[in-house]
Amino acid sequence: MKTNESAENYLETILILSRRNPVVRSVDIATEMGFKKSSVSVAMKNLRENGQITTTKEGFIYLTDSGREIAEMIYERHQILSSWLISMGVDEKIATEDACLIEHDISKESFEAIKRHIGVS
């Protein structure tokens, strides 16, 4: 299933937060992303309807297998592209921002070529 950039960012954020915190809640996502809680609520509803997250009655958010797959793909792209740009002399802040832009649009073929070129499997 093709997801949009916004959904990918939310899924990636949930993944990152789940690695740092025992549970993830909408308020955590709002704080991390700098969004209003109402915006996050709408996004969580969409992710839930698309089968990419589940939520408990307590409001805890968990990635489904399909949500985790997308989140891990985007996170891997972000990490590798950021590191690659930094290794070429790009300022860390700029490299991170640019990686955020590239990670959503780069083709799988081009990303795999970059990984091979820099020796990441």
List keywords for this structure.
single chain, 121 residues, Arc Repressor Mutant, subunit A, Diphtheria Toxin Repressor, domain 2, 2 domains, elongated
Description:
The protein has 121 residues and is mainly α. The protein folds into two domains: 5-64, Winged helix-like DNA-binding domain superfamily/Winged helix DNA-binding domain (Arc Repressor Mutant, subunit A, Orthogonal Bundle), CATH 1.10.10; 70-118, Iron dependent repressor, metal binding and dimerisation domain (Diphtheria Toxin Repressor, domain 2), CATH 1.10.60.10. It contains six helices and two strands. A hairpin with a 5-residue loop joins strand 1 (53-55) and strand 2. The longest helix is centred in the middle third of the chain and has 23 residues, at 65-87. The relative contact order is 0.13. The model has no long low-confidence stretch (mean pLDDT 94).
